[in-house]
Amino acid sequence: MDEELSTLSATVGQALTDSKLVLACAESCTGGWISEVVTATAGSSAWFDRGFVTYSNAAKQTMLDVGAETLNTHGAVSEESALAMVQGALAHSVAQVALAVTGIAGPGGGSPGKPLGTVCFAWCRVGQAACTNTRHFFGDREAIRRQTVIHSLRGLLALLDGAKTVP
């Protein structure tokens, strides 16, 4: 793991430790990369509960209770689906804070309405309203996925710092 991801992981770990919170992740397009980054930090078992890799719609439904209506109406790559994923991660873990990502990393799969590099995010802390946003990243599959990992963890840090919305 490179220095930027390692530093970000350590910063997230310290923020969660300081806040006495435990994290869960719900990942689609990153395939577990966020969970890999946070568990690369020694001692992460004190502040990381679990990661859900829900690549297929069926996995989103069975593991995180994302509704078929949400997926049919908005698609897997939508803020609505990311929101349902983050809520499911909290409901199916002991975590008090969670993040979720779902997107199109490529090289195929994009459409005019949701081009390659579209990624939807959600963050939620128990007892607070969730934050969602959508980003459009550029580059190859690995670059899009890496940018997704970074944005998701920076968004988590913003949420832990008291932000009501994530930039």
Secondary structure blueprint with pairings:
Layout: H1 3-19, E1 23-27, H2 33-39, E2 48-53, H3 57-64, H4 68-74, H5 79-91, E3 97-103, E4 118-125, E5 131-136, H6 141-160
Parallel strand pairs: 1-2, 1-3
Antiparallel strand pairs: 3-4, 4-5
In short:
The chain is α/β, with parallel strands linked by helices and 167 residues long.
Q: Ranges with pLDDT <50 over ≥5 residues? A: none
Total of domains: 1
Query: Could you tell me the radius of gyration in angstroms?
Result: 15 Å
Shape: globular
Strand order of the largest sheet: 2-1-3-4-5
Annotation, overall tally of beta strands? 5
Structural class label: alpha/beta
What count of helical segments does DSSP give? 6
Proportion of residues in helical segments: 40-55%
Q: Assign the CATH class.
A: Alpha Beta
How confident is the prediction overall: mean pLDDT?
96
Compute the separation of the termini in Å.
25 Å
What does this structure look like?
- The chain is α/β, with parallel strands linked by helices and 167 residues long.
- The protein has one domain: Maf protein (Alpha-Beta Complex).
- 43% of the residues lie in helices and 19% in strands.
- It has six helices and five strands.
- α1 runs parallel beside α6.
Give the key terms:
6 helices; alpha/beta; Maf protein; five-stranded mixed beta sheet
